[in-house]
Design a protein that fits this description.
Blueprint: H1 3-24, H2 30-33, H3 57-71, H4 73-84, H5 88-115, H6 120-133, H7 142-166, H8 170-200, H9 202-215, H10 226-235, H11 241-256, H12 267-300
Helix pairs in contact: 1-5, 1-8, 3-5, 3-7, 3-10, 4-5, 5-8, 7-8, 7-9, 7-11, 8-9, 9-12, 11-12
Length: 305
């Protein structure tokens, strides 16, 4: 099904989901969450030290990746507007989504600056590199785009929420929880939009789901030293294969979209579904294996005296 026809068929659904989103959205203000009383001036000769943060390295890695992912908002907006267009409910949604997403980098950066949780010089240099590069996934079809944004938003919500849970600071937890709450509503919009796409174009959507699951990368691709940070984040259990399988692929792809029980698929889509189900099973096995290995290694670490 071509892009214009699919977008036309889904426009009433997008309008309905936008109305639902606006009815459920909650106004909030970044400045009310930031503990400014804990802040101090940064003198000209200030050099950050890990002792300033009082956070484990893996938690700092997660905060670093989460914030720089949010900083790349201009390029995500560009991709979404190019995919949906700027008119009707599609354009209204993409602008509303962008406005809400903009708060996320504001509140996270202000919190990190006030608490000195991350080296501000390294963070700013990484932001400059990230935004100057502007690397984001570029789905080649509307179907692939719908699948990608649904999976991406849920992955981002999970990453933010799990990061908040390992910050030993109630304020930091509240900041990440509030951002994750926004991401969850964005995910629900895209999840249900993709479900409607499956009803309209089941074969095209199944092919797209297989492609996006096969090529999916953790939020933050393109960030300086991303692979190093991603390994640290996985080691901490903030976001890894087991979480990707158990909290994204199973509940969304297998249960909500119910790809295993779709009927009337083309031969190409049937082959894609077969490959998809095998891949999801392999990801689950790999996730459980890596989690066991991580737990075994943790048990070998001697308790502090």
């Amino acid at each position: 099904m071509d892009a214009a026809a699919l977008l036309s068929d889904l426009e009433p659904v997008a309008a309905r989901l936008l109305d639902r989103h606006l009815a459920q959205a909650k106004e909030w203000f970044p400045h009310q969450l930031v503990p400014y009383s804990r802040g101090e001036d940064f003198e000209a000769d200030y050099e950050w030290s890990a002792e300033d943060a009082a956070l484990p390295a893996e938690v700092r890695s997660s905060l670093f990746v989460n914030l720089l992912t949010e900083d790349n908002l201009p390029y995500y907006f560009r991709t979404i507007e190019a995919m949906f267009g700027r008119h009707s409910a599609w354009g209204e949604w993409s602008r509303r989504w962008t406005a809400e997403e903009g708060r996320h980098s504001i509140v996270i950066r202000d919190y990190l600056t006030v608490t000195r949780a991350i080296d501000p010089v390294a963070l700013e240099r990484a932001r400059m590199a990230q935004v100057s590069c502007g690397q984001v996934p570029e789905p080649t079809t509307v179907q692939a785009g719908l699948v990608y944004v649904a999976l991406q938003e849920l992955a981002t919500r999970i990453a933010h929420h799990n990061t908040g849970k390992v910050i030993d600071d109630p304020v930091g937890y509240d900041v990440m929880k509030r951002v994750a709450s926004d991401e969850n509503r964005h995910y629900l919009f895209y999840r249900d939009l993709a479900a409607a796409g499956i009803e309209v174009d089941p074969s095209g959507m199944v092919i797209a789901i297989e492609e996006q699951v096969r090529e999916f990368e953790m939020p933050g691709t393109g960030i300086v030293d991303f692979e190093t940070h991603a390994r640290a984040i996985a080691k901490a259990g903030i976001y890894d294969f087991e979480i990707h399988h158990g909290q994204i692929l199973v509940p969304v792809v297998l249960r909500h979209w119910d790809v295993e029980n779709l009927t009337g698929l083309s031969d190409e889509a049937e082959r894609a579904r077969d490959a998809l189900l095998v891949r999801i099973d392999r990801i689950g096995k790999a996730g459980r294996r890596l989690a066991r290995r991580r737990n075994e290694q943790a048990e070998l670490v001697p308790e502090p005296v």
